[in-house]
Amino acid sequence: MHEGLLAILRKLRSNPDKELRLLLLGLDNAGKTTILKSLASEDITQVTPTQGFNIKSVQSEGFKLNVWDIGGARKIRPYWRNYFENTDVLIYVVDSADIKRLEETGQELSELLLEEKLRGVPLLVYANKQDLGHAVTAAEIAEGLGLHNIKDRDWQIQSCIAIEGKGVKEGLEWACKNIKRK
Ligand code: G3D
Ligand code: MG
User: Fold this and answer.
1) CA-based angle 61:62:63, to the nearest 5?
2) Whole-angstrom distance, CA of residue 21 vs CA of residue 24
3) Torsional class of 71: left (φ above 0), alpha (ψ -120 to 50), beta (otherwise)
4) pTM of the predicted structure, to 2 decimals
């Protein structure tokens, strides 16, 4: 039987008493909802869609995940900051087959990395949709996003195929190892 990734995460976690907070962000269509589903499987206890903002808060024993589409709607951006507090890991999802929007997604990521409340928070980038023939490699995504210029936090790029659950777990393992002790 498929074990939910949150169950796996629960075992990897170094400090089981502390709630782990994950932010899962990216442009629309990147694959966030697909990753969310593979994370959660059976053990989601609560999904709260926030009226009008399209932010999903998912809570499971010991975990809190906040998920939304970035890009567009600049006027609601200040509201996002409410969800940045105490984030342990920022997970950024990129559609590796959507070269047209690589620059846009890179721009959005750069803005996020400037957020004071996300300062020093480890960054995991999923180069998703690696099954598609025209997808570019994780290394090319890293290059396109300028990840090698990031000096103020740990970061990792992980290729994945969210619809098949491939690579998702490996990314989370990195994330768990890189959570800062507060
Ligand atoms: P979002 O929540 O970031 O907006 P979704 O993205 O998770 O809703 O995914 C957007 C579309 O991409 C979905 O297709 C989904 O099935 C598809 N997708 C997600 N991950 C992968 C992947 O690894 N490979 C491929 N080929 N497709 C993927 P639909 O057709 O349902 O809109
Ligand atoms: Mg979605």
Assistant:
1) 95
2) 10
3) left
4) 0.90
Ligand 1: atom nearest CA of 26 is 3
Q: Which residues line ligand 1 (CB under 6 A)?
A: 26, 28-34, 69, 128-129, 131-132, 161-163
For helices 32-40 and 5-12, the axis angle rounded to 10 degrees is 70
Lowest-confidence region among 74-78, 135-139, 171-175: 74-78
Taking all residues of the chain, what is their mean pLDDT, rounded to a whole number? Answer: 86
List residues, by chain if needed, whose CB lies under 5 Å from ion ligand 2: 32-33
Residues 5-177: name the CATH superfamily.
Answer: P-loop containing nucleotide triphosphate hydrolases (3.40.50.300)
Ligand approaching nearest to the C-alpha of 129: 1
**Mean pLDDT across 152-166:** 95
Q: How far is the CA of 130 from the centre of ligand 1 (A)?
A: 12
Would you kindly state where each structural domain of the chain is located, as residue ranges? Answer: 5-177
